[in-house]
Specification:
three-stranded antiparallel β-sheet; 2 domains; about 300 residues; alpha+beta
């Protein structure tokens, strides 16, 4: 028998399959940087973090004392920012009339709680409002660096997420007390998003929001499938060792860590497959085969041609 949580998830997954995201007003976007390398899944010590993916290296440098962004919240935030950038073509964005409403828009429940511990992620009992505030500060206090080394090219892209943030709310209340919370994204991030926004179904992100790995996998799969189909590419094999370096932020690079990562990867894939049935991965022992499939958000012409 399904638990209430699993039953809710299954209901969400079926609804996603029945209605196109455009018709459901759920068409969203995320930044291409999230398809290249991933943020930490859990709190990390220190102010420096790196992930690699082929010739790409993502470096995150945190504001001292604020900690590195981690978990589902910064991923959902980056998708919301990207969606609003594409929708409004503005760099200054309002979170809404209240933090409770903003959390609801992200598919998160609103709860207060003063919590304890530090912004760097030590144990605390903070509610979602406090946790979201900490992750906004961590994200906007961090600088992203994308380093790319190719056969005949090397490039460095500096990506501070924002120029500034002003957050006004009482952590115990749902209202913002009349002061709009304002986020100003940096020109570099604004241009990065508009150069190649990755279409996503926001209903899918909300359904799998409890798993940072599932969020990463969903975004990566729909982007890779779009690139592979447009380029006419055949199935691509990716070694488990490479996938772990790209996705497995919390797993040690040894045999036990690899086994734990593979288990977590398969569990996350099952959740992604529920909301994105066209996605197709095949475990081939020492590698995973990525089989070309339809991207989750198909071009309008493809939807109309059915």
């Amino acid at each position: 028998m399904l638990s209430p949580t699993d039953a809710r998830f299954l209901e969400q997954a079926l609804a996603i399959q029945d209605v196109d995201p455009r018709d459901a007003k759920a068409l969203g976007y995320t930044a291409r940087i999230l398809t290249i390398a991933t943020l930490p899944h859990r709190a990390q010590p220190g102010d420096h973090y790196e992930r690699t993916n082929g010739g790409y290296r993502l470096i995150v440098q945190a504001m001292p004392g604020a900690g590195l962004p981690f978990g589902s919240y910064p991923r959902l935030l980056l998708s919301w920012l990207s969606t609003e950038i594409v929708r409004t073509r503005q760099r200054e964005l309002e979170l809404g009339p209240s933090m409770a409403q903003f959390l609801k828009n992200l598919g998160l429940h609103s709860s207060g709680g003063r919590g304890c511990g530090t912004p760097a992620g030590k144990p605390h009992s903070a509610g979602t409002i406090v946790r979201m505030r900490r992750q906004i500060v961590s994200l906007f206090g961090s600088r992203f660096i994308l380093h790319n080394i190719a056969k005949e090219h090397e490039g460095v892209e500096l990506l501070p997420i924002g120029d500034g943030v002003e957050l006004w709310w009482n952590a115990e209340a749902s209202a913002s007390r009349g002061f709009p919370s304002i986020i100003r994204v940096s020109e570099a991030f604004y241009e990065h998003v508009l150069r190649g926004p990755v279409p996503v179904d926001m209903r899918a992100l909300r359904a799998i929001k409890r798993s940072p790995l599932a969020l990463d996998m969903y975004t990566w799969l729909t982007h890779r499938n779009f690139v592979m189909r447009n380029g006419g590419r055949a199935a691509t094999k990716i070694a488990w060792s490479h996938l772990q370096v790209q996705f497995g932020a919390d797993y040690p690079l040894n045999s036990r860590g690899r086994a734990d990562f593979k288990k977590a990867f398969h569990l996350a894939y099952r959740r992604v497959k529920a909301v994105y049935p066209a996605a197709h991965l095949r475990d081939e022992g020492d590698a995973v085969a990525l089989v070309p499939s339809l991207p989750h958000v198909r071009p309008r012409r493809a939807v109309h041609s059915q």
